[in-house]
Amino acid sequence: MRRLPLLLIPVTAALAAVPYFSHQSPVIPQVQAQQEQPWRPASVPDKGPSESPFRSELSDQTPYNSWQERRSLIASSTLEEVYEKSIPGAVRVIIGNAGLGTGFFITSDGYIMTAAHVALGDTSEPLSVLTSQGKEYPATLVGYDELKDLAIIKVKGNNFPTLQFSSSTPKVGDGVVAIGNSRGSFDGGRAGKVTRLGASLSASFPSNMVASSMPLAPGDSGGPVLNDRGEVVGVSTAISSGAGHFSSYFVPLTTSSQIVKDLQAGLKKSVPIIGVSIADARDYLDAEGVLVTEVVPGLGAHKAGIKDPQIREYRDDSGRVRQEISGADVIVAVEGKNVNDSDDLIGVLRSKKAGDQVTLKVRRGEQTLTLKVTLTAKHKV
């Protein structure tokens, strides 16, 4: 049995919460923990130190190396103007003492679009929003779709400044700018270009996203992504990095997106889960399949008989604390389909709904078990 350094077994929340990925290529939903970036609300929010991604203002004396550079500067200047004009419509979303994200008004009577993983970040904590005018409002959850990672929350009031959706999706190469609350700033601007359409990261994230070079960071999720006309083209949701390459991703939206109307009407669509935390077995047991690292009591997997692994801790000759895994359950198939990694399992589960039953093939030592597991909604709010 392979021995692992302490804490190397990830409690990947692929089936019980929003997942994180391996250190070689992290893919991170952008809700920021307040413990990492503390801030204090002021009567007028402090926008923090200037981190403008925009070039200095154009003038007739500005030297240019090429027509392409001049076009780039003009585009950057336009996006900066868009950002400045759009700030009043954006808000900081506060999840109690647990974290923060971003959102934006889509109606003047207080409906706010954000990311589902922001609005559902900690359902035991109260939601509130802070506007660019320094006013904080309690917020209520109206609707969410975890598969699309979109949500709408609402505050009481009228005459809020709104941002309007575009009638079309951007093209590769188009300039875009996001408004977000990362790096300790309030509603900072992050400019970049669209690099890919129809992008996918893993089964744990929305499909058909738009990839870009915008330098997003934790705290930006749920914020608006705007084109050079000041129209919203999407909602920030994730970043990825690996092999020296960075990308940010947003969920595209247009004026014809039915999901916006559905969320305003109260749609609540949760991810179906079996109730375990998992990791790729090949990383820890040199085997194919998905290693169960933790079982949530009372949910489908626990009721079906799936077990927690036995982990023995000890110190090696150098004094380091080590772990040895034994008696682990490894999921090798779901609904008759082989499971080679976490994506294989999550992809099948996300095609189901809460209340459905799935058949798992589980390897436990020398035994292979066939278990029927009833799916549960990840969130019930």
TrEMBL record:
Keywords: Hydrolase, Protease, Signal
UniProt-recorded name of the protein: Serine protease
Domain of life: Bacteria
PDZ domain mapped to chain residues: 256-366
InterPro entries, per the entry: Chloro_Bact_Ser_Proteases, PDZ, PDZ_sf, Peptidase_S1_PA, Peptidase_S1C
SUPFAM superfamilies reported for this sequence: PDZ domain-like (SSF50156), Trypsin-like serine proteases (SSF50494)
Signal sequence range: 1-16
GO molecular function annotations of the record: serine-type endopeptidase activity
Regions that span the bilayer: none
